[in-house]
Design goal:
With about 270 residues, this protein is α+β, with helices and mostly antiparallel strands. The chain has one domain: 4-Layer Sandwich (Glutamine Phosphoribosylpyrophosphate, subunit 1, domain 1), CATH 3.60.20.10. Helices cover about 35% and strands about 20% of the residues. It is built from 8 helices and 12 strands. Strand 5 and strand 6 form a beta hairpin. Helix 7 packs across helix 8. The chain is globular, with a radius of gyration of 18 Å.
Length: about 270
C-alpha cells in the first residue's frame, strides 16, 4: 500500500469527500428501483466483458448523466490498471476513476517493493476493500461504484472476469459479465450466443467478430436504455473497446471501430 490511504487513511479521505456531478450507472441502491425498473438509482451505462478466442474483450459506452441531463458523451469507462488488469466502471465517475488510480499505484508499489506482481486474489481483495470503504457514499446515493474487473495471471496467462456489488463482494463471471442500466438486454443476448451460437460459444469467437459483437451489443442497449450513449457516427463517438490476451492489453483504435461499425453494424 502507499500514501495516506496505505497508512490508515480511508478512501473517502483520499477523495476529500468529493461528490460526482454525474453518474455512470448504478442499480439496486436504497430508495431507488432495482435493475428491472426505472428509478433514481439507474442513471447511465452499459459495460461488458466476455471471453473470445485468445483473450477477453472489455467494452463500455461513453455517456455520463446527471438526472435526465447528458453531461458528456466522452467518458472512458474501461481503464487500464496494470499490464494484466482492466477495470470497467459503472457508477459515480469521480469515485470510480479515483479507485482505479489507487489500484494502479498500489499494484505498482507492490511490484517494485516485492519484485513480483501481486496475485489475482490480492488484487481482488484490494478492490473489495475500496468498495467497502465507499459504502457510506453509495448508500447516500451520490458515490456508488459497481465495476467489472478483468485480470490475468502473469504466470499462466489465464484471464478471469469478475463483477462486484456495491458492498465489495466479488463473483467470477464466466464466460461473460455485464453491468450498468443497459445490462439486461446485453446479458440475455450474450447468454443466448454462448449457449446456442457458434460452436465453442463466445470463447470460440475470433477477434474481429468479437469486436463487431461488442459494437452491436452497445447499440442494442442504447436502443432500449436512454442512459446508454450508443454510437454517434457524426460526432465520432465510439465505445471504448480493449482486449486482454497473452501479449497484454490492446485498445481498438477509433479508425478500426469506425470500419467495424460500417461493415458489421450498419452493413452499408
Amino acid at each position: 500500500m502507499m500514501g495516506d490511504w496505505a497508512n490508515g487513511g480511508s478512501f473517502l479521505e483520499l477523495l476529500g469527500q468529493r461528490q460526482s456531478i454525474g453518474s455512470l450507472g448504478t442499480q439496486g441502491l436504497p430508495g431507488s428501483a432495482d435493475a428491472h425498473g426505472a428509478g433514481p438509482g439507474i442513471q447511465a451505462t452499459t459495460i461488458l466483458a466476455f471471453h473470445y478466442r485468445g483473450g477477453v474483450l472489455v467494452a463500455g459506452d461513453r455517456r455520463a448523466t446527471a438526472g435526465n441531463r447528458i453531461m458528456t458523451n466522452r467518458v472512458d469507462k474501461v481503464l487500464e490498471i496494470d499490464g494484466h488488469s482492466l477495470m470497467a466502471i459503472a457508477g459515480s465517475p469521480a469515485f470510480a476513476i479515483e479507485m482505479a488510480r489507487v489500484l494502479e499505484h498500489t499494484f505498482k508499489y507492490y511490484r517494485r517493493s516485492q519484485l513480483t506482481d501481486m496475485s489475482v486474489e490480492g488484487k481482488l481483495r484490494i478492490l473489495s476493500q475500496l468498495l467497502k470503504e465507499n459504502i457510506s457514499m453509495a448508500f447516500q446515493g451520490v458515490g456508488a461504484v459497481v465495476p467489472l474487473f478483468v485480470t490475468q495471471d502473469p504466470g499462466t496467462f489465464e484471464t478471469h472476469i469478475y463483477f462486484y456489488d456495491i458492498l465489495g463482494a466479488h463473483f467470477e463471471g464466466a464466460p461473460f459479465a455485464v453491468g450498468g442500466s443497459g445490462s439486461l438486454e446485453v446479458q440475455g443476448i450474450l447468454r443466448y450466443l454462448d449457449r446456442w451460437g457458434n460452436e465453442g460459444g463466445l470463447a470460440g469467437m475470433p477477434e474481429d467478430e468479437a469486436v463487431v459483437l461488442a459494437l452491436r451489443l452497445l447499440e442494442a442497449a442504447s436502443y432500449f436504455d436512454s442512459a446508454t450513449g450508443g454510437i454517434q457516427v457524426r460526432e465520432t463517438v465510439y465505445p471504448i473497446v480493449k482486449l486482454l490476451d497473452r501479449s497484454g492489453i490492446r485498445t481498438i483504435s477509433e479508425e478500426e471501430l469506425k470500419e467495424r461499425y460500417r461493415t458489421g453494424v450498419e452493413r452499408v
